[in-house]
Structure formats: C-alpha cells, structure tokens
C-alpha cells in the first residue's frame, strides 16, 4: 500500500532514490512519470500514485518521454555511459583525451565531464591519474626502487610523485609504511569498543566495534607494516575528550587530526565536519554542496576512518531513514539520538 503523502513529498523533491518504488500519473495530461522527473511539478489534486508502470498504463496513462518511466531513466543511461568511459580509460594506453573519450561514448565533452564527475567525484583525467596511482601502490612493495615502480605504473619519472600531497612519501609506501610509528588504545564505551590511533600528526583512526581483537586487526590492515604501540596512558587526554563527546555530544573533542584520503574524500569529509551536532543532511544535499553525486558521497562516507570526529553518522537517506553506516545502524541511531537530546537540553 503506497503512502500518498510520502510519495508526494518524493515527487516534490524529485527524489531519484524513489525511482522504481512507485509511479505518479497526472490526470490533466494523461502522462505517468518517475518520482525524479524534471518536468514542471503538477497540481497535487491531479496526481495519482501507482506501484509500477504497468499499473499506470492499465489505468489509461501513457509514459513520459522526458523521464522514460517504462525503461531506463536518463540518469541510468548516463550511469551506463560513465561505466563504459571508465572501462575505456582503464584499458587504453595512453588513456584517451576528454574529446576522444566523448567521441567514443557519444556525448559532448562538456556533458561527459559533468556526468563523469557527478558519478565518480573525479574528472576523466583525474580517474586515469587515480588508476595510475593505484598501480603504483601495487608496484611499490616489490619494486627494487621507487623509480622502477613509477616506470612500471606509467610515470616518466619520480618527480611528480613527491609533489603529491600524501600522508606517506612514495619511499615509505614502497616499504608498506614500515618505520611509521602509531600509538593506539582500545577502551569500552557506550557503543561497545572504541579504538583510537594517533600518528605524530594527530588522530588517524577512530573505530567502533564489538570486539577489541577485530578492531586491532582492522587497524593493522589499514596501516600495513607500520609499527603499532599500545599506549593507553599516553592517549589518555584524547580518549577522555572522545568519551566526553559520546556522553555529551555538544562537547566536541578538539583534537589534531591526521586525515588520510583522496582529494575528493577529503572534500566530502570537510563538508561532514561543517554539519552541526544535532542536525543531519541527506546524501543529495551533501552532494549538491560540493557539486558531486550522492553515490560518490556515500562511498566517501563509507571510507571514513574517523567517525565522530568526521561525523558521517549525520548523513541520512532522502526519505529520512538512517540508511547505511559502517559501524551499524544501531550505533548511528544512538549517536543521533544523543545529539538531538543534547540540542534539546541546550535550548531549555
């Protein structure tokens, strides 16, 4: 049974997440559409809701030519074209230019560039660079030198590698982080177990879980051959601030952070840090803020290793549901409930 009020809200918001969940039809035009249809919004009194395109057609309505509700939507067609563009970039040497890629895909260069960045968070050139860097990361551990790894990955030399912003230099990454010293501590908290790790630059990981051994294994996986040292005493101040924020969300921890990620991930994480405690944003709102795509934002949120300090729990689905969360929906609900309660106490 369709909830008419919720369906109408999705139509007003042109919520693409609701495409496939229902169809709306307009009596004055005789047309049925997807919730995300970009056409002019109809009057509420003229709108009816149907579970699928077949039901709308059976009721005498015809499909909208703009949003193609009976087949792939324009957005889905663009998704497929961007996937094809990624495959061409990955399998061509040298990678095609934007103009060459657009000609192969069948879009204008400007249209392809916008669609590509919206769905991946990168330009086609940035995608090729990211793939080349990923190849470099695979080559570094077994290469005889950084130069050998760079040449195998398609670089002409090593100069550009050392000009890139990164937490570790290429030489350190060739040794899989060997020589980097991280301190960590695992303590019980209201959400189960909490692991906090810090480098010389600041807190580099804050992880939640049910099992201390599993948290330590995740830290070891993230930082490969780095030296890990248990330091409950030395990290006491950082832990006290984090635990205080869990108990009183308005007391935000003020800690130096060693945030590691791609340029796009860091852009998303900076946007997360701007969401005040007690408030939420949906993925579409966050994507619009940084001129990206909700799916790209969701992937960046899932890669965040510093939750609470980089609050990805404050991002929800367009329909108001909690959506996914790396450390479990139950923890996300507790965090948001605590922040809302704290905001209410502040107003009293």
Automatic annotation (TrEMBL):
Q: Which keywords does this Swiss-Prot/TrEMBL entry list?
A: Activator, DNA damage, DNA repair, DNA-binding, Metal-binding, Methyltransferase, Transcription, Transcription regulation, Transferase, Zinc
Q: Name one GO biological process term.
A: DNA alkylation repair
Cofactor(s) the protein needs: Zn(2+)
SUPFAM superfamilies with a match to the protein in the record: Ada DNA repair protein, N-terminal domain (N-Ada 10), Homeodomain-like, Methylated DNA-protein cysteine methyltransferase domain, Methylated DNA-protein cysteine methyltransferase, C-terminal domain
- Which Gene3D superfamilies does the UniProt record give? DNA Methylphosphotriester Repair Domain (3.40.10.10), Homeodomain-like (1.10.10.60), Methylated DNA-protein cysteine methyltransferase domain (3.30.160.70), Winged helix-like DNA-binding domain superfamily/Winged helix DNA-binding domain (1.10.10.10)
Record-linked InterPro entries? Ada-like_dom_sf (IPR035451), Ada_DNA_repair_Zn-bd (IPR004026), Bifunct_regulatory_prot_Ada (IPR016221), Homeodomain-like_sf (IPR009057), HTH_AraC (IPR018060), MethylDNA_cys_MeTrfase_AS (IPR001497), MethylDNA_cys_MeTrfase_DNA-bd (IPR014048), MethylDNA_cys_MeTrfase_DNAb (IPR036217)
User: Organism's domain of life?
Assistant: Bacteria
User: What protein name applies here?
Assistant: Bifunctional DNA-binding transcriptional regulator/O6-methylguanine-DNA methyltransferase Ada
Protein's organism = Pseudomonas leptonychotis
